[in-house]
Amino acid sequence: MATAFERIASHTVSSGGSSLVTFSSIPSTYTDLMLKISTKTSFDWLLLEFNDSAGTNYKQQNFRGDGTSVSAQNQINQSAAYATITGQNVTTSVFGNAEIYIYQYKQTSFKKLVGAEGISEANQTAAYQYLTSTEWQVTNEAINKIDISKSNAGNFDEYSTFYLYGISNA
Amino acid sequence: MSEVLTKVVVDCSTGETQVLPLTPEEISQREADAAAFAIEQAERQAQAEALAALKASAKAKLVAGEPLTAEEADTIVI
């Protein structure tokens, strides 16, 4: 049971956009981490990479709903956590939202799990919801750096926001 | 004029934020990610279309009183 929920850092994308947001030197004083992200960009995966660890260190399962059908995928040996979906830059002032929970990020004896959900809101008929579970298969490293990017060319639009929280269980 | 790709680095220990241009390696990684995303989307679309076709075929055969293939039966039997 969480006893404290504290904002560690945040960033709002400025004019001109940005394609990658990094939270570095994350303190190891919490139990879990949470990201709350609101983005506007092309229709993309939102990617997470921990401690500059690419290679094939991520595996995941995801479910996608689009209002008419549901599909599921199992992906292994990924170079990043395909955490959830971004917003779509088709409607003015409408942003997609995602919440990503990183369990026991400072442990150095087992793989780290990430749960995520996201919606590509666009104020139009087509919208997508993703539920994703990811495993970062590195056991001996605490997470102290998170890169957040997207799977396609271009930048996150201005006013996209990224919040990193620490959750304490004791 | 092409879009300038930048990254933002937020140092959680100091609160300092830096805006930096992407390195060539980071640009290459993004291109690889984009290709993987396109493949994933195409595979998902193909799977959805194949399932829809099987369901349609199963339904048509049921209505006509014809035997279903095992694959078609799998789409309607849990």
What count of domains describes the coordinates of chain B?
Answer: 1
How many strand units of chain B? 2
**How many H/I helical runs of chain A?**
0
Categorize the overall geometry of chain A.
globular
DSSP strand content of chain A: over 45%
N-end to C-end Cα span of chain A = 8 Å
Order of strands across the biggest sheet of chain B? 1-2
Spatially, the strands of the biggest sheet of chain A line up as 1-12-3-8-9-10-5-6
Number of strands of chain A: 12
Number of domains of chain A: 1
Rg on CA atoms of chain A, Å: 15 Å
Give the gist of this structure.
The complex is a heterodimer of chains A (170) and B (78). With 170 residues, chain A is mainly beta.
Characterize the structure shown.
The complex is a heterodimer of chains A (170) and B (78). In chain A, the strands form 2 sheets. An 8-stranded antiparallel sheet of chain A has the order 1-12-3-8-9-10-5-6, with no helix packed on it. Chain A has a 4-stranded antiparallel sheet with strand order 2-11-4-7, with no helix packed on it. Chain A is an all-beta fold and 170 residues long. In chain A, β5 and β6 (70-78) form a beta hairpin. Chain A has strands at residues 4-12, 20-24, 32-39, 45-50, 58-65, 70-78, 81-85, 96-102, 112-119, 129-136, 146-150, 161-168. Helix content of chain A is 0%, strand content 51%. Chain A has one domain. By secondary structure, chain B is of the alpha+beta class. Chain B has one domain (6-74). Chain B contains 2 helices and 2 strands, in the order ββαα. Chain B has helices at residues 24-64, 70-74, and strands at residues 6-11, 17-21. A two-stranded antiparallel sheet of chain B has the order 1-2. The radius of gyration of chain B is 24 Å and the shape is rod-shaped. Chain B starts with 5 loop residues before the first strand and ends with a helix.
